[in-house]
Specification:
The complex is a heterodimer of chains A (397) and B (511). Chain A has 13 helices and 16 strands. Chain B has four domains: 167 residues, Uridine Diphospho-n-acetylenolpyruvylglucosamine Reductase, domain 2 (2-Layer Sandwich), CATH 3.30.43.10; 118 residues, Uridine Diphospho-n-acetylenolpyruvylglucosamine Reductase, domain 3 (2-Layer Sandwich); 107 residues, Alpha-Beta Plaits, CATH 3.30.70.3450; 75 residues, Alpha-Beta Plaits. The N terminus and C terminus of chain B are likely disordered. In chain B, 33% of the residues lie in helices and 20% in strands. In chain B, strands 15, 16, 17, 18, 19, 20, 21 and 22 form an eight-stranded antiparallel sheet that branches. Chain B is globular, with a radius of gyration of 23 Å. The chains are: A alpha+beta (397), B alpha+beta (511).
Chain lengths: 397, 511
């Protein structure tokens, strides 16, 4: 493993690899190396030694960190300033896959995979808060895009292009993010016993109310039991000043009388359960299970979940039905059941955990339209002419 | 009217027919590509072909009188008549037009409402302007899933109007929202006064239908939140028509809060108002809008709107919060307490929607207000780290003296987006030239203090030649190569965004 502690070190490593066309597996701590397709690489290039917060300006709502900064360190620093990462990035419980590494992850990895938690429904994804990036392209060129200001439309937006590109276009060395104050209080309403369809209806009522709901998830029985709840649970979250949370929870409860008695959680309980939901803790996991993540029009989420349950998978809904997490036997039967159902619903999917054999055998994200594939190949050629950065991570060659 | 110069160099990113030269017009200069002689020579034939694609008489405009409105956009000091203007009504027509232009090597300038302040829709003499205004239908509204699918010619405000009955809205609200179209908003990644809470266009769009220069139709994103694969949507939004033409947009629509209310706070100095902004943000309150006006802006807007702005103030903030009446009272009460720590000249909390509207009226009418005291003005659009505001305003004040031109500053204080309005007289060419130099100096200053050239208006032709202030040559080169991946022949909105490659090779000279 090559793990430089300077920018020049990354430039040297990538330039050398490009010169002799040595494929590199790009990672931080490798927590997400089991996502998508396995990379056939001769060498691993890690950002883990390139860490540190280079700028924190709480009054300007910005923080910059080197890519190898552990997420936990960054979050701790922000918490000192009473702030947090807006999209509440997850630390997935299923990271520790067989043969995988520890669950610690870097901010660079979070950005490279564009992973967001429940608050995405209200406040946007990680990609929406990336203000600036610095990266080394596959040609060994140092580039920057964006900056440290909240509004910037100067030139093509490479921040968004690199975010979620899984290290295939360039190695991120530093990111600058918008941050926000941690809300004073959090409150949660829970209903029990709804089926997925009823739950999506209830969540839609909440999300189309004027009360700024910041979380809406539904846990079927198995998922609820994984969190110690005895029945299917539907959860609605409000985050704001304490008096507003009290007011809004009360207003929401009055909208939901038809769903019968509801429970309520205070700030401490709420933060705990939403952290579990964020981290995919409700997923039923067994050693031979795969994990799929699905983004779909919210009203189609319940249908996708039911169809997949009928095919023997387990799962739960976040983002008001727009995010479906699924787990089940890691085989082609499961995979086809999921991809067929999601395609019919007009959504997209990612295969996030499975043995290498399955991840190499099936597409791990939906196929792109033909004309876009041609553009994508030309674009990748410009960033990574030798094809050395995480080759094949997203698409088979 | 204009002089053409011989071609001497080879543009690495274009074929030989795309070599750049100067176009000098009257006393004013903007370098544009030399029109392709073969295109001008075949003008009649090209128009005949365009008429075959769009058989409706009114859809292909070549009559100089009807072309006139298209010769410029909101940056009206730059003008150029195009070869023709075409007004397609379907995605298939746009695809056919682009396929034809690509095959014939004809340059294309996409246009929405033409409200760009950066010259993003400035025509070229050998280009076909593709105007999207006839594609102005709202195709689908889905409240449960909180999206609307609209054509690019729907106005920004038109989306909010279409969904207001159900108390929904489309969040980005540029000042031109009455006229500007969502297609243009996509091109420029438009913002507005409420970005601090709701984000800009890129944060509020779920999908687009993109037509490439090859005439291929590609759906990017969809009706869901996260897209798999590369963030093509993020790349397209704000790409200023360089990568393709968008013919359908899926926007997020949001349920409106229970209510919103504004307050005014006036201070004795720019530094004091700036410190107050810091204190508000530091308290954990994120207002939906936090607008700053300096003394010249206050005076101009008050004379225009009679909004009751304090004329003795050096700086003024408009602060807006959302929620129920009780929530508004609580938040405004907290903000008032904070403002009181900064020795305000006056604080005025609106007591009603009408009073809030009056407070906003002056700010939203700022451009009209400046227009009343100066026949012409340039509206600049840099972004700065908010902590540098006092320093930046001080430097702009010094430049104003040095250039002998008045300037009023309006600032989205929450997000650092600064709009200096430089007043000049367009009848005096020297005055325009000075104003442009002043504007360029301000933008260089924005970059110097850690900000950027443009926060929400885009680069267009206006800031094209300043791009090297913010980007290295290698970075610009990579951006050009990304454009080439979509548009290998550089036919889409040529001569915008990227500095002309041979620019340094020749000095401008008058015709």
């Amino acid at each position: 493993m090559i793990a430089p502690d300077t920018e020049d070190g990354f430039i040297r490593a990538i330039t050398a690899a490009a010169a002799d066309r040595t494929p590199l597996a790009v990672e931080g701590f490798g927590s997400k190396s089991g996502f998508l397709r396995p990379v056939q690489a001769a060498e691993t290039l890690s950002t883990r030694n390139f860490a540190g917060i280079s700028l924190y300006a709480p009054k300007e709502l910005v923080v910059s960190a080197r890519a190898g900064t552990p997420l936990a360190d960054l979050e701790a620093k922000l918490a000192e300033g009473g702030q947090h990462l807006i999209a509440e990035p997850p630390t997935y419980a299923f990271f520790d896959r067989p043969g995988g590494t520890a669950a610690a992850q870097t901010i660079g990895g979070i950005i490279a995979c564009n992973l967001s938690g429940p608050r995405r429904i209200a406040w946007g994804a990680m990609r929406d808060h990336v203000l600036g990036v610095q990266a080394i392209t596959g040609a060994g060129a140092k580039i920057h895009s964006g900056g440290r200001v909240l509004k910037n439309v100067t030139g093509l937006d490479l921040c968004k292009l690199l975010t979620g590109s899984y290290g295939t276009l360039g190695l991120l060395t530093e990111v600058t993010l918008k941050v926000l104050p941690i809300p004073e209080a959090t409150g949660t309403i829970l209903f029990y016993g709804l089926d997925s369809g009823q739950a999506v209806t209830a969540m839609t009522t909440a999300l189309t109310s004027p009360f700024s709901v910041t979380g809406a998830a539904h846990l079927p029985r198995e998922a609820a039991m994984a969190l110690g709840l005895q029945r299917p649970a539907t959860l609605i979250r409000i985050e704001d000043f304490a008096d507003s949370v009290v007011y809004r929870i009360e207003k929401l409860r009055s909208l939901f009388i038809e769903y019968g008695p509801a429970d309520q959680m205070d700030t401490v309980e709420s933060r705990k359960i939403w952290t579990d939901i964020r981290n995919a803790r409700p997923l039923v996991m067994r050693p031979d299970y795969g994990v799929w993540r699905v983004s779909v029009q919210p009203s189609r989420g319940a249908g996708v979940l039911s169809q997949c349950q009928a095919a023997g998978l387990d799962g739960y809904l976040d983002w008001g039905g727009g995010l479906v997490f699924l787990s089940g036997p890691a085989n082609e039967t499961s995979h086809h059941a999921i991809t067929k159902s999601v395609a019919e619903a007009g959504g997209v999917w990612w295969l996030l955990r499975a043995p290498d054999s399955l991840r190499s055998a099936v597409p791990v994200i939906p196929a792109e339209p033909g004309p876009l594939a041609a553009i994508r190949r030309r674009l990748v050629q410009e960033f990574d002419p030798a094809g050395i950065l995480n080759p094949g991570k997203l698409h088979a060659a | 009217m204009f002089g053409l110069f011989a071609v001497t160099g080879q543009n690495a990113y274009c074929d030989a027919a795309l070599l750049e030269d100067r176009l000098v017009r009257g006393n004013h200069m903007v370098r544009l590509p030399i029109p392709k002689p073969e295109i001008l020579a075949q003008c009649e034939q090209i128009i005949a072909e365009l008429r075959k694609i769009l058989p409706d008489d009114r859809s292909v405009i070549t009559d100089p009188i009807r072309l006139k409105p298209y010769e410029s956009d909101g940056l009206s000091s730059y003008r150029q008549m195009p070869l023709a203007v075409v007004l397609p009504e379907t995605t298939e027509q746009v695809a056919a037009l682009l396929r034809f232009c690509h095959a014939r090597g004809v340059r294309v300038v996409p246009r929405g409402a033409g409200t760009s302040l950066a010259g993003g829709a400035l025509p070229l003499a050998d280009a076909v302007v593709i105007g999207m205004m006839r594609m102005n239908r709202i195709l689908e509204v889905n409240y449960a899933d909180r999206f609307a699918i609209v054509q690019p010619g729907v106005t920004n405000l038109g989306i909010s109007k279409a969904v207001e009955e159900q108390e929904f809205f489309y969040a980005p609200d540029p000042s031109s929202q009455l006229a500007c179209m969502i297609g243009g908003n996509i091109g420029m990644n438009s913002g507005g006064a409420h970005c601090l809470k709701y984000g800009v266009t890129a944060n509020n769009v779920l999908g687009v239908k993109l037509v490439t220069i090859d005439g291929d139709i590609i759906d990017l994103g969809g009706r869901h939140l996260d897209a798999a694969d590369y963030d093509w949507l993020g790349l397209i939004i704000g790409s200023e028509g360089q990568l393709g033409i968008v013919t359908e947009v899926t926007v997020r629509i949001l349920r409106a809060p229970e209510g919103a209310r504004a307050m005014l706070a006036a201070f004795r100095g720019n530094e004091i108002a700036g410190a107050c902004v810091d204190a508000i943000i530091g308290s954990g309150i994120i207002p939906v809008a936090l607008e700053f006006m300096d003394r010249p802006a206050i005076h101009a807007c008050e004379a225009y709107a009679h909004a009751g702005y304090p004329l003795d103030a050096a700086a003024m903030l408009i602060i807006e919060v959302e929620g129920s009446l009780e929530e508004q009272d609580r938040l405004l009460g907290r903000i008032k307490e904070i403002c009181n720590r900064f020795d305000p000249i006056s604080l005025k909390v609106s007591q009603s929607a009408e009073e809030s509207a009056a407070i906003w009226k002056g700010r939203k009418g700022a451009f009209g207000a400046i227009g009343r005291i100066s026949p012409d003005y340039l509206c600049m659009d840099g972004t700065i780290p908010t902590s540098t505001l006092p320093q930046v305003l001080h430097r702009i004040g010094e430049m104003s003296v040095q250039y002998d031109l008045k300037v009023a500053n309006i600032f989205h204080a929450g997000d650092g987006n600064l709009h200096p309005l430089i007043m000049f007289d367009a009848n005096d060419p020297a005055s325009l030239h000075k104003a442009e130099a002043f504007g360029a100096d301000i933008l260089r200053l924005c970059v110097e203090v850690g900000g950027c050239l443009t926060g929400e208006h885009g680069v267009g032709v206006e800031k094209r030649d300043l791009m090297s202030v913010q980007f290295t040559e290698a970075e610009l080169d990579l951006q050009r190569r990304i454009k080439s991946a979509f548009d290998p022949d550089w036919l889409l909105n040529t001569a915008k965004v990227f500095p002309l490659v041979e620019q340094q090779a020749e000095q401008p000279q008058a015709a």
